[in-house]
Design brief:
The complex is a heterodimer. By secondary structure, chain A is mainly beta. Chain A contains 1 helix and 6 strands. Chain A has a single domain, classed as Folate-binding superfamily (Folate-binding fold, 2-Layer Sandwich). In chain B, the strands form 13 sheets. In chain B, strands 8, 9, 12, 13, 14, 15 and 28 form a 7-stranded mixed sheet that branches. The chains are: A mainly beta, B alpha+beta.
Chain lengths: 98, 1001
């Protein structure tokens, strides 16, 4: 069971308090009507499934109920960073690693 | 206690003043406090403790701990019965009743055909033949497994405890004790868990002194110091069963199992859920058996186990011992045996020239050492009587001379050591093969866990103590306690110099493996060396596949004894190294855990808590039948004496249509939405617009997912300029709330809007029917109830029956309707007042079934019943609820014009009239165009809602039919499982009052 540091509560808590909310940093097209069916379909459905560091959203469901970002290694489940909505992690890993 | 024929006159850690009586398979036997069931059985001379799983061969006790594959017993009977326990881990108590759980009758029968049951037998025989499998499955399923499930609810209680510690030490053997001691002295919070009743591990059977003390004195002193420290917690009888992500571990503590079968006044077992900063795995090692012909005969045991029974339990499990070994350490068992005054027939040593100090000691004691030889076969009926030995060639794969026979009734085997690396493996870290240690060792566990002692391949006791202390100090310093240097002074121990071991994973026989008597690798599931070689010949190359094909390591013992020999035999058959072949991974739990421990207190009403509305007890008093909606208990219908469900629903429906009826609608989700941008936010969330909705007005909205499918629906009211109240479906309230938070926080944090879930704050009574206004007037309301002052889709605040209330003129039935909301604490008061005031109008309470019939008559959908997550507003004929030209758009907006959503043949909502005017179509029934088509049958759609309408005196149904909106008047067919085919006519989904006039009376 993961131990996750909520960037708002500033506490590391057990996974049971949190919910996974999918991949992070997927921008919603500013003008949906301007995107083609294919572009819109990509936004809707296509997600990365990397081996290694992965940015994902979590929500502190049974805590402050706020969403935040987690940089988690999908191989060993280590959590490399957690950071608030709208932020990027301080120690940005190599783009190639993502 | 003359029955204990194999008990020594003195010695051991048993209490001879406390004799205990127990039964095994009905035989009354006696043992002592301090015995395990296994040691007591051996003391009584019980050789056969069960029959093997596949071949029904007699089996005896092999080990002395968690590794035991054969002595699987069932304790007690009926509800309190516990199956699948290892006799080696069951502490004896007075009155214990145990039964063997060997092969059931079916296997005993087929077991005689044993030589016809090779690896994959069941698979090959049954999976290829469906009819044979269908016929045999119940018999096989019945025969499968060990033991029997209890026959009633568990009478015991279980619980869970969350724990945190700086250092968790797993295992209280020499390495674990010194690790715990060192960590504790640094000031770190230490938790020490061990599966045995007594701490000490192998030290409890150690005969050498530690310093000036006996080994057990050293243990006592160490435990004494640990127990005296406030920062240490000791958990005996506690198996660390699982090692999960981020140093979360589970510990199963058996608190009362040693006292008796049932302990009604205490927690029987407790699951500790531990989050440890550091974990020290001092889990030791399990001796590796040797694989030779008929090595499953009772009387073939692990050498350490023989030594443990002699030293710790004062039990000699035989008379004449033959020791068969690949290493020096096992010589201790022969010396212990001799010290116990028993005969050692010989030591058969695989090595050409064993020369360590222990070897010398054995020779000095007059024990014959037969070097360069192996035991190729055990002979005996029900128990070893002789061993066949032969010289081994230099490469270890063939015999090198004639065989001869030695008389003995106990063969103690030692093929080296398998580190107990299960917990580390559970974290996903693969064990690695070490050629030096001739064993799989734990992989790199990172910086938050470390292994120490025998689990790392360390053999000497002194080294285990020193390494353990260093591990304890290191773990503590990583959590900020101490310097990482040890202060531990290891006691002086006599460590004899040794000669290297010579690993041997399969003892050659005079005949080839496939023709030799069975050479067992996995005792519990009867997997032989020949099975593994057969699997390799049949093309299985991955160790994981061979495991599944042969069932190697699939037993409840997870192959604690057999896995490594099996891997090595497979490697040789594949022509690969052991390192290349690799090992299988281990999963929790380390030893089987009871369901009770896993469930804890989450049983009965605590398993899935119920939600009750403030009017719940009233419904109960009226004998309501219940429907579960989410966690809510909602009245389904209120049967009167002698009424069937259909009669009750008919009565309730007619009351709502003709007079007045009342529904408890408190469970509907309610979200209070406030802020300067509340209107803008709702515009983006719903398909319809809320910006221009007047204060005091309500509007129905559809909520879509981003892919354009319907997610939720409901009525939202504007209570003030910047305040709205959203209603959600009962089952979706939490999900909708989370959905609003998601969009607000992740996409539009700039919007000034706040949400509060107020579902539980309000109780709601829906007054429904043409006479509802009269009831409301009678109960007293300071709201103008007239048709023109309080219009359809208005909301008003005021007092109703003296309670502060919010009244909505909305309708899910198509009738005149007032939904009266009051603060939850007044819910029952309001309800009683309405029932009272309504009595002269024949007010009729109704439940969810009637609610469904009423809404279906009107063609109103229920999200999640008529929709299934793939339907758009257009599919449901609800384009009227969508406004596509909003400035910002709404969630799902863009997806509505995706080409796939424009297809004319998409399933669309229709009404269905049963052709015979009498039969209610089954909900979920599949619809086809051709009643008797050749397969494959193209599907036209399915029935989503179906009821008998009392108002219309005929069945009505809603369904999804491909292109259905253009097919009004056509006939579709609904084939039933019983062969009947019902016909239905596609009609408009609104069956009643299509103009919608009734709600405006």
């Amino acid at each position: 069971m993961l131990r996750i540091r909520c960037p708002y509560c500033q506490e590391a808590r057990s996974e049971e308090e949190f919910s996974h909310a999918g991949e992070a940093h997927i921008p919603r097209p500013a003008n949906p009507d301007a995107s083609s069916d294919a572009q819109w379909g990509e936004y809707l459905h296509l997600r990365r499934n990397p081996r290694g560091p992965h940015r994902e959203m979590w929500v502190h469901t049974a805590g402050c109920r706020r969403y935040f970002n987690v940089l988690r290694d999908t191989v060993n489940y280590e959590i490399l960073a957690t950071y608030a909505m709208g932020e990027r992690p301080a120690d940005e890993p190599e783009e190639g690693a993502l | 206690m003359s029955g204990q024929v194999r008990r020594l006159a003195s010695g051991g850690r048993i209490n001879r003043d406390r004799g205990l009586r127990f039964t095994f398979d009905g035989r009354v036997l006696e043992g002592y406090a301090g015995d395990t069931l296994a040691s007591a059985l051996l003391a009584n001379g019980v050789d056969v403790v069960g029959r093997s799983f596949k071949y029904a061969r007699p089996r005896g006790i092999v080990g002395h701990g968690a590794e035991e594959p054969n002595a699987i017993v069932q304790l007690g009977s009926a509800a309190a019965s516990v199956p699948n326990l290892r006799a080696t881990q069951v502490e004896l108590y007075d009155g214990l009743e145990a039964r063997s759980t060997g092969a059931p009758v079916f296997q005993r029968a087929v077991g005689r055909l044993g030589r016809f049951l090779p690896a994959g037998f069941y698979y090959k025989t049954f999976m290829g033949s469906a009819p044979l499998w269908m016929a045999s499955e119940p018999l096989l399923r019945h025969a499968a497994g060990f033991g029997r499930a209890p026959t009633g609810a568990d009478p015991d209680t279980y619980d869970r405890m969350n724990r945190h510690c700086d250092v968790l030490v797993v295992g209280a053997g020499p390495a674990g004790l010194s690790a715990a001691l060192e960590a504790a002295r640094s000031g770190a919070r230490v938790l020490l868990a061990d599966e045995q009743a007594e701490f000490g591990g192998s030290l409890l059977a150690e005969t050498r002194p530690l310093g000036v003390d006996g080994a057990t004195n050293w243990v006592d002193k160490t435990i004494g110091e640990l127990a005296s420290r406030a920062n240490v917690e000791l958990l005996p009888r506690s198996t660390v069963s699982g090692f999960y992500d981020h140093n979360f571990l589970t510990i199963v503590e058996r608190r009362t199992d040693h006292l008796g079968l049932v302990s009604p006044n205490a927690t029987r077992e407790r699951l500790h859920r531990v989050r440890a900063d550091q974990v020290v795995l001092a889990t030791g090692a399990i001796e590796r058996p040797l694989v030779f012909a008929n090595n499953d005969l009772p009387g073939v045991m692990l050498a350490t186990s023989v030594g443990t029974y002699v030293n710790r339990y004062a039990v000699v499990p035989g008379e004449t011992l033959l020791l068969f070994t690949t290493n020096d350490q096992a010589y201790r068992t022969a010396l212990d045996w001799r010290r116990a005054g028993r005969e050692v027939c010989a030591i058969v040593d695989v090595r050409e020239a064993p020369g360590g100090e222990l070897v010398a000691a054995a020779r000095e004691a007059g024990i014959e050492v037969i070097a360069g030889h192996v035991v190729i076969e055990a002979i005996g009926r029900g128990r070893v009587a002789r061993a066949v030995i032969a010289p081994l060639n230099a490469s270890g794969d063939a015999l090198d001379g004639p065989t001869r026979r030695l008389s003995c009734n106990l063969i103690a085997c030692s093929g080296g050591w398998n580190p107990t690396l299960h917990l580390g493996s559970q974290t996903g870290v693969r064990p690695r093969w070490s050629e030096d240690a001739a064993a799989f060792l734990p992989g790199d566990l990172g910086v938050r866990a470390l292994c120490t002692g025998a689990v790392t391949g360390t053999g000497s006791l002194r080294a285990c103590l020193e390494e353990g202390a260093l591990a304890g100090a290191t773990a503590a310093s990583r959590t900020g306690f101490g310097s990482g240097r040890t202060t531990f002074a290891a006691p002086v121990i006599d460590e004899p110099r040794g000669t290297p071991a010579r690993p041997l994973y399969l003892v050659p026989h005079a005949r080839p493996v496939s023709r030799a008597p069975k050479q067992f690798v996995d005792y519990q599931l009867d997997v032989t060396a020949a099975d593994i070689e057969l699997a390799a010949r049949e093309g299985y190359k991955s160790v994981e596949h061979v495991k599944r094909y042969t069932a190697l390591g699939f037993g409840t013992d997870q192959g604690k004894l057999g896995n490594v020999n099996g891997v090595a035999i497979l490697a040789r058959a594949l022509g690969k190294t052991i390192a290349e072949t690799g090992t299988t991974m281990f999963r929790p739990s380390y030893t089987p855990a009871t369901f009770g421990t896993i469930a804890g207190r989450d049983v009965g009403e605590f398993f899935d808590p119920e939600r009750h509305t403030p009017m719940h007890t009233w419904h109960e008093s009226k004998g309501a039948a219940w429907e579960n909606v989410g966690r809510w208990k909602r009245p389904w219908y209120y049967p009167r004496a002698g009424e069937t469900m259909q009669q009750a629903v008919n009565r309730e429906c007619l009351a709502a249509r003709d007079g007045v009826a009342i529904l408890d609608a408190s469970t509907l989700g309610k979200i209070d939405i406030q802020g300067a941008d509340a209107a803008e936010f709702l515009d983006r969330i719903y398909t319809i617009g809320f910006r221009r909705l007047g204060v005091g007005r309500c509007r129905y909205g559809l909520m879509l997912r981003e892919d354009g499918t319907i997610f939720d629906d409901g009525v939202t009211a504007r209570l003030a300029e910047n305040r709205y109240l959203m209603h959600t479906t009962t089952g979706n309230a939490e999900a909708v709330f989370a959905w609003l938070e998601l969009w607000h926080q992740t996409e539009w944090p700039d919007l000034d809007v706040h949400f509060t879930s107020v579902t539980d704050h309000w109780a709601t009574a829906a007054l429904v029917g043409p006479r509802s206004r009269e009831v409301l007037a009678k109960v007293g309301a300071d709201i103008d109830l007239s048709r023109d002052a309080f219009r359809f889709m208005d909301v008003r605040e005021g007092e109703v029956a003296g309670f502060p209330a919010r009244v909505f003129r909305i309708s899910f039935s198509g009738e005149l309707s007032f939904e009266v909301n009051v603060p939850a604490q007044h819910g029952r008061g309001l309800w009683d007042a309405l029932i009272d005031a309504g009595s002269e109008f024949g007010i009729t309470p109704y439940g969810t079934e009637t609610m469904h019939v009423l809404r279906a008559e009107k063609g109103f959908i229920i999200v999640g019943q008529d929709t299934d997550g793939s339907m758009t507003p257009a599919d449901m004929g609800m384009d009227w609820a969508v406004r596509r030209n909003k400035p910002f758009g709404f969630i799902g907006d863009r997806s509505l014009v995706l080409s796939d959503h424009q297809r004319a043949d998409r399933p669309q909502l229709v009404g269905l009239a049963s052709a015979d005017g009498d039969t209610v179509l089954p909900e979920g029934g599949q619809l086809v165009d051709d009643p008797k088509p050749p397969p494959p049958v193209p599907m036209a759609g399915h029935v989503t809602s179906s009821y008998y309408s009392a108002r219309l005196s005929r069945p009505i149904a809603l369904g999804m039919v491909k292109g259905g909106s253009k097919r009004i008047g056509e006939t579709v067919y609904c084939p039933l499982a019983d062969g009947r085919i019902l016909a239905g006519t596609i009609v408009d989904p609104v069956f009643y009052d299509p103009e919608g006039e009734r709600q405006n009376v």
